[in-house]
Amino acid sequence: MQPTQELSGYLEEMAYQIRRLSVEMITYGKWGHIGGSFSMAELLAVLYFHHMRIDPDAPKWEARDRLVLSKAHGSPALYAALALKGFYPIEAVYTYCELDGIEGHTDMTRTPGLESSGGPLGMGLSVAVGMALGLRFKENAVARVFCILGDGECNEGNVWEAAMSAAHYHLDNLIAIVDYNKVMAKGFVWDLMGIEPFAAKWRAFGWDVIEIDGHDIPAIVQALHEARWVRPAGRPIVIIAHTVKGRGVEMAEFNYKWHTQAPEPAVADRMLRELSRRYGRAEEGYSRLHEDDAKEAFYAGE
Amino acid sequence: MPENDNNPLEMRDAFGQTLVELGAAYPNMVMLDADLNTSSKAVYFKKAYPDRFIQVGIAEQNLFGISAGLALTGFIPFPSTFAVFAARRALDQIAISICYPNLNVKIPGSYVGVPTSRAGASHNCIEDIAVMRALPNMKVADAGDNADLRAIMHTAMKTEGPVYFRVTRYTLPVLFGPGHTFAWGKGELLREGADVTLFGTGLMTGKCMAAAEILAKDGIPAEVIHLASIKPIDRALIAQSVRKTGCAVTAENATIVGGFGAAVAEALGDVYPVPLRRIGVQDQWLNSGGVDALFELHKMQPPHIAAAARAAIQAKLSPEAMKGPGS
């Protein structure tokens, strides 16, 4: 299933907006993870603006698809996608990490559209397995459960407990997506803890594997279509999406220093200007450049 | 309660039978097991409702994560494992996947405290009360007998949100009649007395009753209050009793560090401080041994509770003794 040029263009715009809003909220909230938000911008754009069956006006619709963000530190990108989708006003992203605002890591009780709460790595796939089992108990054959994992997160033993059980229970309504961005909090995956041969590990655990370029929008559209409509045959499906951590702004690309770091307003301004140039747009900087000066001087570094 | 007083069931069997009762009443109840169902007695549910029984293998982190997902799709999961694995191995999953979003999961912690005995320190769970009550949204209970356990489980099903309750592998003396009910934050006055209050939870309440008998023979009237609901705890009843008695002893089948005695001490400190002695495992590992030998070793038998009561009374009467040993 190849997307039309019009659809691809729309999804690219959404990925751009997800990146912009991620920088805006991390800068204004003075905390957050740019690298891991940028690396899954296209994945979230295709999921939320094309593939997933969800309705922001009926967030608890029984037949909806569910997404568990296991790499919950990527929350800015997800919050951006949910705001753009209409779960809450765009303005709400400026409450990120503030009292009574949207939480640093995911808190489903505080943000409409979130399907789970998280933060500690390695836990989300188990929650997704439980949802997929629950939907099967209810004979809900329509809904799918998606779970986005990080590559470094797959160091966690809990991931493989969940993987083993998903295959044991033949959960082909479960689609895991690994944002394989090659960089962990303090360096490259292969330096800190090698995970290769990665696809072979998932296959050995009984999963069907699709491997794609996670920034290639038509490839993501095609992979999700396959995972939903073509592949299901009694095995859970994992899409290994090869991505670039920090993709979109040169200083953050493949740079672990931008795993956790809130840019100072002037840096955010440069980042956003670069981003708009990359997307071929008129240069547009940080929207709250001056308003920010009045806030407390706290910048969470790496 | 299907129980014969002359031949009472082990608490874990009462647990298994109550699961079956609840399973009939709640079609959305599901049982999860990590390869321990014939020990925990989750097997009763498995036999009655095989379609609602989920085996996850020896993977406790996954056990609680899956339970969160099932709760999020409208089920009431009972993830069952030994208390040590809930309180230690899977604590993060219970905290963040279940308690943080306030999900409707009921967690039975099996094989708690001294009666697990011969398995040794790795399996004799002493820290679960302290650990579980530290989690926001979590409610914690330890039953005094089988009727109490059944009442706790029925109330837990009617309670929205996470619940942790203890199940021991032991036969407890009967404390309550068949019409017994349980409410969160509500203690039970079992015996009135003026000189000292014995606050018990779980199987230790029965030992507090025996201790009160010992004290009565010496002319010391002891009050006994059962606090199955450890969180929330009945602060009003605690304060009301110690205003009268002026001193207290707590007794728990667990470590005294951060556990039930600590919860009572917090309540006393906040509302009405009085001399307090705490019976339980004193910051040690609960190594292998026979059940009675372990109760003796850790000074958790009725005579030990009675001695602690005398010490508390002494402290009340003499400010010097307030300081206690080592001060």
List the helices and strands and how they pair.
The complex is a heterodimer of chains A (302) and B (327).
Chain A (H helix, E strand, L loop, with lengths): L4 H25 L4 H5 L2 H11 L14 E4 L5 H11 L38 H14 L7 E6 L6 H12 L5 E7 L8 H4 L5 H7 L3 E6 L3 H14 L6 E6 L22 H14 L24
Parallel strand pairs in A: 1-2, 2-3, 3-5, 4-5
Helix pairs in contact in A: 1-3, 1-4, 1-10, 3-4, 3-9, 5-6
Chain B lengths: L10 H15 L3 E5 L3 H4 L2 H6 L4 E3 L4 H13 L3 E7 H7 L1 H9 L6 E5 L17 H6 L5 E4 L3 H13 L4 E5 L20 E4 L4 E5 L3 H14 L4 E5 L2 E3 L3 H11 L2 E8 L4 H12 L4 E6 L9 H7 L4 H16 L1 H4 L5
Parallel strand pairs in B: 1-2, 1-3, 3-4, 4-6, 5-6, 8-9, 8-11, 11-12
Antiparallel strand pairs in B: 5-10, 7-9
Describe this structure in words.
The complex is a heterodimer of chains A (302) and B (327). Chain A is an alpha/beta fold and 302 residues long. Chain A has a single domain, classed as 3-Layer(aba) Sandwich (Rossmann fold), CATH 3.40.50. Helices cover 39% and strands 10% of the residues of chain A. Chain A contains ten helices and five strands. In chain A, strands 1-2-3-5-4 form a five-stranded parallel beta sheet, with helices on both faces. Chain B has helices spanning 11-25, 37-40, 43-48, 60-72, 83-89, 91-99, 128-133, 146-158, 204-217, 235-245, 260-271, 291-297, 302-317, 319-322; strands spanning 29-33, 53-55, 76-82, 106-110, 139-142, 163-167, 188-191, 196-200, 222-226, 229-231, 248-255, 276-281. Chain B is globular, with a radius of gyration of 19 Å. The longest helix of chain B is centred in the C-terminal third of the chain and has 16 residues, at 302-317. In chain B, helix 1 runs parallel beside helix 8 (146-158), helix 4 (60-72) runs parallel beside helix 6 (91-99) and helix 9 (204-217) crosses helix 13. Chain B is an alpha/beta fold and 327 residues long. In chain B, strands 2-1-3-4-6-5-10 form a seven-stranded mixed beta sheet, sandwiched between helices. A five-stranded mixed beta sheet of chain B has the order 7-9-8-11-12, with helices on both faces. Chain B folds into two domains: 11-167, 3-Layer(aba) Sandwich (Rossmann fold); 188-319, Rossmann fold. Chain B has 14 helices and twelve strands. The interface between A and B is medium-sized, with 35 and 28 residues.
